[in-house]
Amino acid sequence: MTWNTDQLAQLAQQYERIGYVAGERWPAPPDWAGPNELLAMLREIPDHGGRAGYMTALAKLTRP
């Protein structure tokens, strides 16, 4: 999976917004999910949704 500079910046913003704490171990997204799918998934998580919000969004992620 290749991320461009803009996507990496968006990824960092989304993780900060949902409350990811560096060093926490959250499940990895599926191998088939690319940057656009992952960013869309993260945008669905409410502010400060944390691990619970991430897990809910991950469970809803479907293959395009």
What are the low-pLDDT stretches, counting only 5+ consecutive residues below 50? none
Shape: globular
Strand tally: 0
Helix coverage percent: 40-55%
Largest sheet descriptor: none
What is the rounded Rg?
A: 11 Å
The average pLDDT score comes to: 94
Count of DSSP H/I helices? 3
Number of domains: 1
Distance between the termini: 16 Å
Strand share of the residues?
under 5%
Order of helices and strands: HHH
* Computed structural class: mainly alpha
Written description of the protein model:
With 64 residues, this protein is mostly helical. It has one domain (5-60). The protein is 53% helix and 0% strand. The model has no long low-confidence stretch (mean pLDDT 94).
What's the helix and strand layout?
Layout: H1 5-18, H2 35-43, H3 50-60
Write a brief structural summary:
This protein is mainly α. It contains three helices and no strands. Helix 1 (5-18) packs parallel to helix 2.
Key descriptive features of the protein:
3 helices, 53% helix, 64 residues, mainly alpha
